[in-house]
Amino acid sequence: MADAGMLIFLSLFMLVGSFVAGSVPLIMTLSEERLNLVSIFGAGLLIGAALTVIIPEGIQMIYSQQFEDLKLKYEQSKATSPGHVGDHDHDNEGLHSVIGIALVLGFVFMLIVDYIGSSKTNRDPESGTSRSQRSCTATLGLVVHAAVDGIALGAAATTSQTATEMIVFFAIMLHKAPASFGLVTFLLHDGVDRARIRRYLFFFSIAAPVAAIITFFGLSQESKETLSSVNWTGLAMLFSAGTFLYVATVHVLPEILMRSGGGGGHSHLPSDATGTVKAGFTRCGLLLFVIGAIVPMALTALHHH
């Protein structure tokens, strides 16, 4: 029961923290140019969180459990046959492909979801539908990502290992705040009204807590014993990283690049022979993107310290 109480507390904290972080751009009054710069910073946060927080944490969880298993096998082999300790390097080789498969599955999953949504849009074309579809797909991708995060947290809670649960929780929080901030700035820049943005933000914020609680209470005792290995938690985080990367690179970043290069009407931006402004970052935008990408890494370093 103590495990359930801790999980509920962490889930509530996650819900409130994510919603508050995403509400910051909503309470700020920004001009179009400043909103564009904040959006670029948010896109950097999304990319940085995926590359420097989610993927490394997922890989660390998988390998930490594998190293524990190898150590146990090594001690057993020493006890049974001291002169002939087996080589267990081949046990690590399979993990390389498993990590890649988990990432690709998450990316492909969101690609399929995006394709299904796009096909429905093409059958019912309306003015502004593509922009609305882009916003909905980006939101759906991050909601799915948040739900998978919740599954990882719920699975970690079933192991009754407080250290593992807290590692997963901190890893999730380190990228949920940047993700919620980046999502809201993207939606604001995409012209979505604030009431709808708050609904999207609420769905994103509540997805992980609900998934965590359902996972914890929905698993049978046999399933909890199976998930006592951290491997499944790490794989769930890597799958969510794949969905995260799809949203950040296919939807958010290209839109930010296009708006930054061609939407602001800056005369100093590079142009082609016809005078059309090319897509790309300004110097200030590039600097903000780099800073946004570095912030999650800095937070991770402080967390590990």
From TrEMBL:
Highest taxon, organism lineage: Eukaryota
- The answer to keyword Phosphoprotein applying to this record is no
The residue ranges crossing the membrane are 6-28, 35-55, 95-117, 138-160, 166-188, 200-220, 232-253, 284-302
Q: Does the keyword Transmembrane helix apply?
A: yes
Note the InterPro entries from the entry: ZIP, ZIP9
Q: Keyword set for this entry?
A: Golgi apparatus, Membrane, Transmembrane, Transmembrane helix
A GO cellular component annotation in the UniProt record: Golgi membrane
Q: What is the membrane topology here?
A: Multi-pass membrane protein
Task: Name any one GO molecular function.
Answer: metal ion transmembrane transporter activity
The record's Gene Ontology biological-process terms are: zinc ion transport
Location comes to: Endomembrane system; Golgi apparatus membrane
Major localization listed first in the record, in broad terms: membrane
| PANTHER family named in the record | SOLUTE CARRIER FAMILY 39 ZINC TRANSPORTER , MEMBER 9-RELATED, ZINC_IRON REGULATED TRANSPORTER-RELATED PROTEIN 102B, ISOFORM E
The name this protein carries in UniProt is EOG090X0EEU
Which organism does this record belong to?
Moina brachiata
Protein's gene: EOG090X0EEU
